[in-house]
């Protein structure tokens, strides 16, 4: 198991074996996602979006249509105005 230590600035160095596995290099971008079980996942943003399909799926959860996503975006953005 790979591990890392958090610095006083809240930074970590991602272990080499993890960087190699995720194909991360200097300048790569990543996202952190908290799943339904509370586990934190590191998601490389240098991968095709199709490979992320179903990543956050929960059993029994229905897929949203594009229209439903647009409505949710609109409703969420109205909170910022």
TrEMBL record:
Coiled-coil region(s): none
GO MF annotations, alphabetized: DNA binding
Native source species: Nostoc flagelliforme CCNUN1
Keywords: DNA-binding
This protein's record includes keyword DNA-binding: yes
UniProt keyword DNA-binding, yes or no: yes
UniProt name for this protein: Bifunctional DNA-binding transcriptional regulator of stationary
Domain of life (superkingdom): Bacteria
Pfam families membership: MazE_antitoxin
InterPro entries in UniProt: SpoVT-AbrB_dom, SpoVT-AbrB_sf
Chain ranges of the SpoVT-AbrB domain: 1-47
